Amino acid sequence: MVSRALLMAMCEKQGMAITDEEAFLRILTHVNYRNAVTWYNGVEVICVRGESVISFTGWADIFGWKRGHTRRFFERSIADGLVELVPSACPSHIRIPNYDAWTGYPDRIKKPAVTEKEITNRTLEESLSSSLTATAR
Q: What is the C-alpha to C-alpha distance for residues 50 and 92, in angstroms, rounded to an integer?
């Protein structure tokens, strides 16, 4: 993995983001790396790891782009599933899906819990399979 500090230094030297991929790397360096509480127009907004409430104008400054170019980039990124809009009081509250995988911590990703029904179905399938195998012999 490349460190955040190195990516930040590269972005400062480069100036404007040339490609969408470079802009996405800048998003990864600017979203929260830990949970935080922020305020937006007097409303408390909980911004967890992998989320940001930076305005689209702020992102335009970070990318070195105009606001229209920035908005279109976010529309494409949301359509592609790289970025999600988080319903909150802040219209620019975004989330990076699987942020921990992007940052090199895949074991932090929550795995869905197995339900009791799934366990029962697996047990039934296994017993049926073993019965069919025994009958075939």
A: 14
